[in-house]
Amino acid sequence: MEVPMIARRSSWTGGGVQERLRRLNLITTVPPLVIVGVVLLFLTARSWWHVVIQVVGLVAALATAERWTAGDYLRVARPSLVVTAVVWLAGALTDDTAAFFGLSVVGSYLIPPLPRHRLAALGGLAALIAALGATNALVHDDRIGWRLFQFAAVPAFAMLFSTAFMFASQRFFDLIAELEQSREREAELAVTRERVRFAGDLHDIQGHTLHVVKLKVALAEKLLDREPDRAREELREVHSLVGDTIVQTKELAYAQRRLNLSAELENAKNLFEAAGIHVRVERESEVDDTASELLGQVLRETTTNILRHAEARQVRITLTRRGIAIDNDGAPDTGPLELSGLAVLRHRLAGHGAELEVSHSDGRFRTAAAFPAPKEARR
Q1: Rounded to an integer, what distance in angstroms lies between the CA atom of residue 75 and that of residue 67?
Q2: Which of 107, 296, 342, 368 could be joined to 261 by an S-S link, Cβ 3.0–4.6 Å?
Q3: What are the mean pLDDT values of the chain's consecutive 10-residue runs (379 residues total)?
Q4: Which residues fall within 8 angstroms of residue 230, CB to CB, at 6 or more apart?
């Protein structure tokens, strides 16, 4: 379905797109009009009166051209049409063959943006130019045919030619406007993605920490009377954990944060053991450094999910060169788990060419992430 011309034309107004189009218009459109107008003036003007009327028509045409990419160009173009029509009539009556230039320029700017009946408007404007030019034959009775050709046929054809050029020019400017708007939308989307990424990282840091603090404080409260020394140790860990979180939050704010898989693995083991969960770690090979940080994010998010949503008794963590798998029991059988954090993480991993698989059956939950081998990544 074709977009109406007036709809595309209105999209030029407002914002940085309009300013760029105005600069482009001043560079590509206005100078050629000045050059053509001045050349016609020197070639055809035979009296001071011809100079005056051609200059008036050229100024009206330039005013319309300059305002073409502005939102208020019709406010200038309509009176300019009247002025240039009078100029052409005066030129025809005084035998000035180039006085039609301003009218043909202004008319060509008015036709393309019309939403409908453009051909009818073009024909009417060409007929107006021919009719005004034909008045030359009324005041000069010699060479009638030649005068009608000079003052009616040629200006009408010039009007058709300039309007065809303006249709192509407007389409060109429409494409430039669409390109600029696409760039602006891409910039806005990049900002939005960065905000989502920052929010996800902040959730990873503080959401995880707050849940761990809650568990440790509850454990310390239970141990306070029976094992005060261990309770104090748990509170010291809470204090240390909060301090580490503050540091990580600052690093995140200054784009300095990087997760360490080994540290996350040790932290996960301590948390599971503190919650009474048996944990087993299997290393099939050393993890590739290029995948370490994202795999650490997978481990951190999964650890939080197990502590928050499952009643696990056993957890197995398997590390490969470019992947990690976490299996746990105690997953509820009431239906699929709504784990939005993993959904966000899957999106993040996909951006780096990795895959995140989540499965849930018979009370067991499995989270596995894997990066493709280097050769597969290049294909």
Answers
A1: 9
A2: 296
A3: 40 64 81 88 86 90 84 82 91 88 88 84 89 86 85 89 85 79 68 65 71 81 83 83 76 57 82 82 84 84 81 90 91 64 79 86 88 60
A4: 223
